[in-house]
Amino acid sequence: LITLLTNDMEFDPTEIIAIYRQRWEIELLFKQLKQNFPLKYFYGESANAIKIQIWVTLIANLLLMVMKSGLTRSWSFSGLATMVRIALMYYVNFYSLFNSPEKDWEMVWKSVAESPPDPSLFD
After folding, report:
1. Who contacts 44 (Cβ-Cβ below 8 Å, separation ≥6)?
2. What are the Cα distances from residue 11, in Å, to 18, 30, 58?
């Protein structure tokens, strides 16, 4: 049996609108998670491992939202998530990087361009 909120005459129309608005926010969150944190496969097989992976994804999403709210420069969420994924390989200040990326990316590219010294067995 399927019951829709719109069929329940006991609810006030403003309550139904508020409930559907909250539901829509959840749908937008799921869309954001699927686009930016692909959970196509799970790293573990146990229920606990899957729960941990989902919680880590939710925490990462929350951290990115907090970071996005603290930036002075405007970034799309997907663009920010992609750049963070790339920048995690380097030691950079995220707020500095995302507020003035040109200067910090130049520094990152210089460090990448410098080849590390050749290892020596006898030094």
Report:
1. 50, 52, 53
2. 11, 27, 32
User: Distance between CA 45 and CA 59 in Å, rounded?
Assistant: 21
The C-alpha atoms of residue 73 and residue 22 are separated, in whole angstroms, by 29
Give yes or no for a contact between 71 and 98, defined as CB atoms under 8 angstroms apart.
Answer: yes
Per the CB < 8 A criterion, the answer to whether 92 and 104 are in contact is: yes
pTM: 0.66
> What are the pLDDT tens digits along the chain (123 aa)?
556 666 667 778 888 888 889 989 999 998 998 888 877 778 888 999 989 988 999 999 999 999 888 888 888 899 889 888 888 877 777 777 777 777 777 776 777 676 666 777 776
